[in-house]
Amino acid sequence: MEELYQNYLPLVKSIAFRYKHRVSFEDLIQEGFLGLLEAKERFDSSKKVKFSTYAFYWIKKKILETIQKERIQSLDSVELNEEILESPIIEKTYESEDLEIFPGKNLTSLEQKVFKLYFQEGKTLSQIAKKLGVHREKVRQIKQLLLRKIKINQKLTENLYAVNRLSV
């Protein structure tokens, strides 16, 4: 078994290298070795075909299956996140005074509008984009920026609270 791996490692690596930008290289190599084992089990030496030629097909097949699974999982998670984010069930959790959570109120007018429409009025990204006349992706990016700012300020508040609690 070890000899099989050593002899065909360059073949597996060369096939995996072609697809390394889609899934981690190490995962592709592991899947390639599973394809190599499949080829070993199915190989018929009476067909007068070189094993490396036959193995190439199985290695590539396993790698492409892995890429497809990863793509489907990635798309499922994106679609699920979009469903959650655009769900009308989202309650208004921020009030107008919550704009104070941003240090120095360093929000542009577009960021303030997105904040109000998304967090206060519960509009979807598509609805906000249509209303403001910008691309939906731009609204999503602004929303992510706002969430980062909220998170940063939340951590700062928690740290200040912890320091004050220790000093008492």
Question: How would you portray this structure in words?
Answer:
The protein has two domains: 2-85, Four Helix Bundle (Hemerythrin (Met), subunit A) (Up-down Bundle), CATH 1.20.120.1810; 96-167, Arc Repressor Mutant, subunit A. It is built from six helices and no strands. The protein has 168 residues and is an all-alpha fold. Helix 1 (2-17) packs across helix 3, helix 4 packs across helix 6 (136-167) and helix 5 crosses helix 6.
Number of strands: 0
Helix count equals 6
Roughly what percent helix? over 70%
Order of helices and strands: HHHHHH
Overall SS class: mainly alpha
Q: How much β-strand is present in the residues?
A: under 5%
Describe how the helices and strands are arranged.
Elements: H1 2-17, H2 25-42, H3 51-85, H4 109-120, H5 125-132, H6 136-167
Helix pairs in contact: 1-2, 1-3, 2-3, 4-6, 5-6
What is shown here, in short?
This protein has 168 residues and is mainly alpha-helical. It is built from 6 helices and no strands. The chain has 2 domains: 84 residues, Four Helix Bundle (Hemerythrin (Met), subunit A); 72 residues, Arc Repressor Mutant, subunit A.
Keywords:
single chain; about 170 residues; mainly alpha; Four Helix Bundle (Hemerythrin (Met), subunit A); Arc Repressor Mutant, subunit A; 2 domains; 6 helices; about 70% helix
